[in-house]
Amino acid sequence: MRNKAPLFNEPIYAPYKIAALVEVLSEQGISPSSSLAGSGVEEDRIYDATALTSVRQYVAVCNNAIALGAHPSTPFETGARLHLSAYGMYGYALMSCLTMRDYFRLGVKYHTLATPTLTIEWSEHDGKAVWTFPDALLFNESREIRRFLIEQQYTQHVTHLQDVFGKPCPPLKAYFSYSAPAHADLYSKYLGCPCVFDHEQCELHYDGVILDQKPHLAHRLTAAVLQQTCERLIGQAKVSSGISGEVYQRLLRRPGEFPSMEIIAQQLDMTPRNLRRRLQAENSSFAAILDDIRCSLAVEYLKTTKMNTDDIALFLGFSEPTNFRRAFKRWTGKTTSEYRS
Predict the structure, then answer these.
(1) Residue 275: which CATH number?
(2) pLDDT in tens, 39-64
(3) What whole-number distance in Å separates Cα of residue 23 and Cα of residue 8?
(4) Which end of the chain is less congested by CB atoms within 10 angstroms, N or C?
(5) pLDDT at 68 exceeding the cut of 50
(6) Residue 179: C-alpha distances to residues 25, 66, 195, 200 (Å)
């Protein structure tokens, strides 16, 4: 299972990651003004709950840390300070999950709410629960910054799992797709497990037995409420950001009567080719947006109405009910009857 790529330039995230990194750098004698130089983030706003920043701005501060000669432990220290409580609704939704399997699943599903700098995936095989971090960066950055982000991301995962369990729960093993750096000893110190370099891809392995265990703050009602909130927040981000947001809003104006990409492009005063390029720059596509809207509407209709699946299929623009049922299975992993029951 894999999370969708985020929008890098959109200021839609609270600056909690920036604040944590600036704090670590300050303890090394690097001033906040130097840490934030060129990022567009003002020093007096990094603790402002109303301030919004982008992934790109956070990466700019990470680049500053490297350029300013920050200690190699900087990304590890930053990741260790980013407890789930810093992530707002996303963090509390994960802490209240009913099982650790839900935690892994929702961690990926709602990752776009967490100022994501890398894509993440998770899978379950050979008795292990495995986080995977695809090698291709989602933006054009150096190998050095990628390593910095991986070091921080791994430490965050270890920190978060401890938050959810209420006690240390170190990985079985950590794998990295690059050669061991000069500060390789820091890896096992912060991650608490053996580390393997020059692996085919970046992976973090946990004992699969934890998947059926219960987080110490698990609560059925709280989990349901917070997960609904996360769904709404993701929906708001989709319909309010960039050219993708424009397309979402126009397709949602009259659900069931979805204009073609050519019509949407005309409405936005551009050619279909330019629209396609603009969407690709935001790691999206017209087909993916339409698919997402149909999925959201299908789920809503099945949950809140008594419409039969044939009518829902027709309303969502499917020529045949069987095509809709096949698509719904692909979207959710369940049949329409299983979902409704």
Answers:
(1) 1.10.10.60
(2) 999 999 999 878 888 888 999 999 99
(3) 23
(4) C
(5) yes
(6) 26, 18, 11, 11
The candidate with the shortest Cα–Cα distance to 186, out of 147, 160, 146, is: 147
How far apart are alpha carbons 308 and 282 in whole angstroms? 36
Asked whether residue 308 is assigned to any structural domain, the reply reads yes
Tell whether 26 and 132 lie within a shared domain: yes
**Are 82 and 132 contained in the same domain?**
yes
The DSSP bridge partners found for residue 53 are: 13
The residue among 212, 231, 256 that closes a domain is: 212
Whether residue 196 is predicted with pLDDT greater than 70 in this model: the reply is yes
Q: Does residue 252 share a domain with residue 123?
A: no
| Mean pLDDT along residues 123-148 | 81
User: Is position 228 within any domain?
Assistant: no
What is the tens place of the pLDDT at every residue in 171-190?
A: 999 999 999 999 999 999 99
Q: pLDDT over 70 for what percent of the chain?
A: 92
